[in-house]
User: Fold this.
Amino acid sequence: MGLYCQGEDIVQSDPNTQHVADALSAMECIVVQDIFLNETAKYAHVLLPGSTFLEKDGTFTNAERRISRVRKVMPPLAGYSDWEVTIKLSRALGYEMNYAHPSEIMDEIARLTPTFHDVSYEQLDELGSIQWPCNEKAPDGTPTMHIDEFVRGKGRFVITKFIATPEKVTRKYPLLLTTGRILSQYNVGAQTRRTENSQWHDEDRLEIHPVDAEDRGIKQDDWVGIESRAGQTVPRAKISERMQPGVVYTTFHFPESGEEAVDSVADHIRWFWEPRMRSAILAAVDDPQALDSMEPILREALIKHRADLMPKAAVV
Assistant:
């Protein structure tokens, strides 16, 4: 089996990092094409250069159905735009592609996709942007999809049953861990953490209610070990009343934090509007009694972080 991954860091962005890593490790060939060396690239057999939006011609289609042009303002630092790399790879594998410009690729998309039938670079340059469907019935696009009725007629309503999360607090895992994003970092942070945005958010922290922190002897900026059924990690604490007692929260923008390692495989917060939760146990790194109650692998991680990452911390 093989995988050709373009512009997506699935190791860090998909839930249950260990599951993804195991799957990638089983691949016979992985090709990663991206602008940065990300976590997925560590599993790649072949690395291909990616180009940014400033280094290529093409289009973006957003969730508003709006197709917009992007125009190259500088030559690709890697030497080739993404579409040129794909063509060279295709030819190397024995399939000839004879595109001379991305506009020819859009022309083929228009021929094969009914809702894009009248889309062309000339049309985009004239109108600025186009919202599909764009065809014989709507040559200038469709700003509003549904007016007098739904495209499919009356529409379709589906009753979905409530399914409770399998994650429950227990004596061993008395807290609920939930993860999410922060404004200054985009998705897994592959691009934004390399910018000045990191002055506002330069690491993933674990937000914990003052009551839960006091019960565990945790203070602001303490390194804390957190373990779920999926894995373990050691972030620093942020005492916050944003969280309810019994719930802790963290972000997933920095791969070194390992927050994805404790995430759930079932709760896909990135693709579905359902909070991602994981029952967890939490302890201050310098709490010997808590260390004794931890699983051996987490205890070793805590001791390592205490030694390697906290030279100024008070260690008991």
